[in-house]
Amino acid sequence: MRDMLTGLPDRSMFMDILRQTVERGELHGNCCAVVLVTLDGLPEVNLRNGRSAGDAVLRSAADSLRGCISERDMVARVAGNAFALILSDVHRRADIQRVVADLRAALSLGVMDDDLYLPIQASLGVDVYPEGGKDPAGLLARAGRGATGGAAAVRAMRH
User: What is the pTM of this model?
Assistant: First the structure.
């Protein structure tokens, strides 16, 4: 299933693909990372500038996130103001750190909507399979706990 506003996979599809990615990881010894991106302040954008401005922020964020990942990775809209990414077959923490830096840079550009600049503020959290466990829901939940847990998970990866 797809999110109607962004065209991205929804939470259900994300969880199915994450489950498959973890299963492949178990079979082949691959690692993957889950990144949760929460758009902070989106309700305020909706209140101050209208829902169409908030929708513009969501569409722009979706496009920005898509542009930062490889074809074998995925991004989904998993909640009203949250996106989740699967970074497949990562081998080093530097791979994850590079993508996270790219995500932050892309989102920091903000959005122009009808000659109005709308900044995008985002929180990113990361968890890594297999260090973070094998349960897809647990991986997403730990990524959602924010940058502190994510940084620890990224540090735990081998070079």
Answer: 0.88
